[in-house]
Amino acid sequence: MIDPASRTKSIELSLIRKMFEVTNPDAINLGIGEPDFNVPENIKQAMKDSIDENDTHYTSNKGIIELREEIAKKFKNENGIDTNPENILVTAGASEALFICAQAFIEKGDEVLIPDPGFLSYEACVKIANGTIVPVDCTMKNEFKLKAEDVEEKITDKTKAIILNSPSNPTGAVMEKEDVKAIADLSMDKNFLIISDEIYEKIIYDKKHYSPAKYSDNVIILNGFLKIYAMTGLRIGYLTATEDYTEELLKVHQYNIACASTTSQRGAYEALTGPQDEVHKMVNEFKRRRDLIVSRLNGMGYETVNVEGAFYVFPKIEDEDFVMKAAKAGVITVPGIAFGLNGKGHIRMSYANSYENIEKAMDILEERVVNG
Ligand code: PMP
Predict the structure, then answer these.
(1) Residues with Cβ < 8 Å from 222, sequence gap 6 or more?
(2) Closest approach atom of ligand 1 to CA 197
(3) Fewer Cβ close by (within 10 Å): the C or N end of the chain?
(4) CA of 33 to the centre of ligand 1 (A)
């Protein structure tokens, strides 16, 4: 085999994916970050219409104008952020948005601050861009919230960017407004970029979401339809930033995928303009599941923090064999260490599974892993 590039060699395949390959197909999957709901009917219909109407050709590189106009309205009405359709790029999921941010702005010698624990793709995308990772501790003492003072300590003259993710994968932590604002202020004072991954924005309980773009111009917001409208396989997301930033991002996007899927864009348009009751139902159901999983884990003696968003819980479980024992007993989970050094001694469990399956999974863990 011809040698891969050193940047490819420097990263590993995702540990989460590896977990799926070793466990039996009947196991209850608390490993994957994927809603168990289906795409709402009105969105399905819009996509079927797009095919029937032969609306399956290339769109503008940025995405169809009607969709970008709706996204701009969403930013104004829900986030209080003034943007315009020209500064919005529709992408193949938040994953592509993240990748093009790294390719457009990070290069050798650049330091990029990422939350530890944090989503796996952050480290990989920065490394593929030849950047240097600087983890910022998100500790259990702070309920895994990223704190502005911890960020400030890690800033050097090489700091090029920070990636924020609130609500967080893998901890469910929601950042406090004062930290979001303080980091936004720092980005202006010290001149670095904030890549704000807001994909779980709407899966939030009893808290409010704040975007740093409200307080700084050095922000690229990443978001998507996948988590909130259960459209994961349809690969559709978006980003916004000021004009100077979007122009550079467009170059990479254009030569990478040309445009997002036309059919998925039609579905996304319907998602934004159609009824929102399914989203509310989904969030209420996630809240019910969160209450169940947290109380069952606490009942087994595992400490958790106040889980305020997304659909993950990150209990303190120091038994190093727990993940394997659970997998053998029929419950898939992910070792916290996969998300950074601060994940050691924790396990990520996703509650994007049915209430009944979560109950069953907790029974299995209690009977066969904890007391087994
Ligand atoms: N960011 C975070 C924090 C995620 O958890 C995920 C999906 N697991 C993504 C981005 C990628 O989302 P998409 O499927 O839209 O590419």
Answers:
(1) 94, 97, 98, 101, 195, 196, 197, 198, 199, 237, 238, 239
(2) 1
(3) N
(4) 8
